[in-house]
Amino acid sequence: MESLIVITGVFVVGLALLVKGSDLFVEAATAVAKSFGVSEFFIALVLASVATTLPELTVSTISAYNGNSDIALGNALGSALANVALILGLSSMIMPLNVDEVAWQNSLFLLGITGYLGILMWDGIISRLDGITLVVLYALFLYYLYKRHMSLEELESEGRGNAAKETAILFITGLVVIAGAELVVNSAVELAKAAGISQAVIGLTIVSIGTSLPELTNSLTSVMKKLPNISVGNMIGADIIDILLVIGVSAIIRPIKVSGKMFHVALPLTLLSVFILTVSLKNNNRVGRKTGSLLLGIYAVFLYLLR
């Protein structure tokens, strides 16, 4: 009984950190955008997505090092699907997400690298060389963004001091969100076990979505604050990191064996979700409720096929 009270207390503390941290995180992301003189979408695409993807990167790299390649790939690919189908789906149902025109181009890039990942998975293994190509692609992506959106003159004119301070606050609040997510996930798993819920159900719900909790809370907070660029930019950026950096680094540490469900279920549904997102953004620079319902339907199919 005492242990349940402690676990429940940890859950409440984690939830508080998650909610308040997300609120501060979104405010910090907005401040960073203003201090650098670039759009909120750009900051969310690059900086915010790095902070919120730390759980996926940590879990996958440790799993790869320990030889659990299915967890490494499943975590990254599953999070990528959850970010677009579940989180953006939920966010757009609350409020249609109108974003900058540049969003569809980054979504198109995400669609392309997801297809490339499918090619790498075709032979049943993602080798170290494959992983290197993924990491190199991410480096090239960052260089492209830097050349397109930022220049040295812009940084100097806006003042580096403020930008550095706001960026530090962004990462600190991001760490608070991650810490809250860890406490919520771990305590929720223990409560589920105490309630007699099966390991399979725990894995498919609490644990699988757990590493995406920072993205979920930050996306919903951004929607509530009517900052859709941060919501969509964070999701697209997080997916790009999941596919290129998380899977790439994991494969470099240890080649990843590809299971049938990853190739035949998770990959096609991720491709479909990103395709729908790209078309929606290309047509009207928004993710509306109709698109959101389609994305949520895809995630429901995903859960059904994993039974």
Task: Characterize this entry briefly.
This protein has a single domain, classed as NCX, central ion-binding region (A middle domain of Talin 1, Up-down Bundle).
Task: Characterise the protein shown here.
By secondary structure, the chain is an all-alpha fold. The chain has a single domain (2-305), classed as A middle domain of Talin 1. Helices cover 85% and strands 3% of the residues. The protein is built from 13 helices and 4 strands. Helix 1 (2-36) packs across helix 10 and helix 5 packs antiparallel against helix 12 (260-284). The longest helix is centred in the N-terminal third of the chain and has 35 residues, at 2-36. The radius of gyration is 19 Å and the shape is globular. The chain starts with a helix and ends with a helix.
Features of the shown structure:
85% helix, mainly alpha, 307 residues, two-stranded antiparallel sheet, globular, 4 strands, A middle domain of Talin 1
